[in-house]
Task: structure prediction
Amino acid sequence: MIFSVAPMMDWTDRHCRFFHRSISLRARLFTEMVSTVAVLRGDHERLLSFDEAEHPVALQLGGSNPAHLAASARIGERWGYDEINLNCGCPSDRVREGSFGACLMAEPALVADCVRAMVEAVAVPVTVKHRIGLGRDESYAMVRDFVGTVSEAGCGIFYVHARNAWLDGLNPKENRTIPPLRYDVVHRLKRDFPALEIHLNGGLVDHDQIARAGAGLDGAMVGRAAYDTPWLLAEVDFRYGGAEAPELTRERVIERMVAYSRRQIARDVPLRCITRHMLGLFNGEAGARAWRRTLSDVARLRGNDPDLLWSAYDALQASAASVARAA
Ligand SMILES: Cc1cc2nc3c(=O)[nH]c(=O)nc-3n(C[C@H](O)[C@H](O)[C@H](O)COP(=O)(O)O)c2cc1C
Result:
């Protein structure tokens, strides 16, 4: 079973991915969605650059024009991405270039053209992330035909967010909570397409649940839970990768992130752009609130001193000790 952290706009940027990679060496990581319009406009350094340590990392593209997707995929491959993923699951509004995201599920032939063009353009795997249906229509035929058509075009890996996208009336956030999760549909896809790599996504929060819900599937993709409780990633390498049980500690992760922050600050990246992804590192532990409070202190963040991470850790320990004394 492969574990991946879902693409999340504004969240899984390069700093977030480096942080996640400092906890798990094996989790598959994804960029935020990048539209082909943005890729083809240029500014690749800002949009596409990442740290070598982040591998394996997939570039997620948004678009629906086969030629634009092929050109963007080629650029992504040149930048070193290990996989190019097409977003067919985001309930986004129409953009200038045309429609993309979840509404593409209604156009499997177009998605097949897009995938075919990308597969011809690059040597790395071309994959698709999608929903299980559109609107209130819960029939299986639509997603089955979608996966069937798209796989014939050369896509062998599908990340399936196990809920419909309701494109009328719900905003993107509601579209991640209100349409019901139906894991059985994902299992049915695996039964009908046993040769494809099928990953389950949506509502997964811990490893025991993944073991139950993902049994028989090829992978589990976790979004919000991995971002909110990143220590979830500490078990990934030995649970899914056959590595030794981890000796990793959160202190070691802080050490890595302090060193990384120094390098990034030297390139004019503000400290807060890195630490904002780390607020959840101690979630569930005594003193977690003191950690978060220190790392949210705007005045101290402005100092751009990576040792703020150690100050936050000291604050956490002091808070945990005072709670222990009071108990
Ligand atoms: C803040 C946020 C941004 C997201 N941005 C993207 C995106 O850019 N591309 C995409 O395919 N899905 C995006 N998603 C959806 C997630 O990849 C995932 O499918 C969804 O959150 C369900 O998984 P979860 O229940 O484990 O969070 C986003 C989700 C969140 C919470």
Remarks:
- Residues 6-11, 32-33, 60, 87, 89-90, 129, 161, 176, 201-204, 222-225 surround flavin mononucleotide (CB under 6 Å).
